[in-house]
Amino acid sequence: MKKWVGFTLLAFVVVFSLLPYSSSYSHTYMVINFNTQVDPGAVSFFQRSFSYAESQGISIVIINMNTPGGLLDSMLSMVNITLEAESMGIKVITYVPPGGMAASAGSYIAMASDMIYMANGTFIGPSTPIVEGIGVNSTYQMHIQNAMLALMESQAEKHG
């Protein structure tokens, strides 16, 4: 446990040392502990968290992520919430702690962040959406996969 706390503190020091400093830039931050699946409840949690950050003038939101993934429409909502926060001047950072993962839908949310930091032994992906009840090679399944590939590529390009 002490090792995990030490690593987490070290990660935060590294993150903040990489951020630009100016006298008009506030380094106030908030950590969202996201240790659940991606579903409508998680969307509500993200909405409340980012609304709070905006109302309090918080300039940095760190998503402490450990998710196995979840629902496509919930993931898209959470990606949009993350992107809206960035357009309001909130820097979003995803951190995957030791023993954590940014799997499936979590990989898209992480990619919508400005930066991703991952502890050794963690992973991101797979990011291929599965539409239940539809054949793997169906036209609809392929359409969804192509759309999500385009989303992943656009987020990678946007965030360098």
Please, could you describe this protein's structure?
- With 160 residues, the chain is of the alpha/beta class.
- Helix content is 48%, strand content 16%.
- The chain contains 5 helices and 6 strands, in the order αβαβαββαββα.
- The protein has a 4-stranded parallel sheet. The protein has a two-stranded parallel ribbon with strand order 4-6.
- Strand 1, helix 2 (40-55) and strand 2 (60-65) form a beta-alpha-beta unit.
- Helix 2 runs parallel beside helix 3 (72-87) and helix 3 runs parallel beside helix 4 (105-111).
- It is globular.
- The chain starts with a helix and ends with a helix.
Give me the Rg, rounded. Answer: 16 Å
Content-based structural category: alpha/beta
**What is the H-and-E element order?**
HEHEHEEHEEH
What is the strand content? Answer: 15-25%
Mean pLDDT: 86
| Strands side by side in the biggest sheet | 1-2-3-5
Uncertain residue segments: 21-25
Mass-distribution shape:
globular
N-to-C span? 34 Å
Determine the fraction of residues in helical runs and give it as a percent range.
40-55%
Number of helices: 5
Largest sheet: 4 strands, parallel
**What's the count of strands?**
6
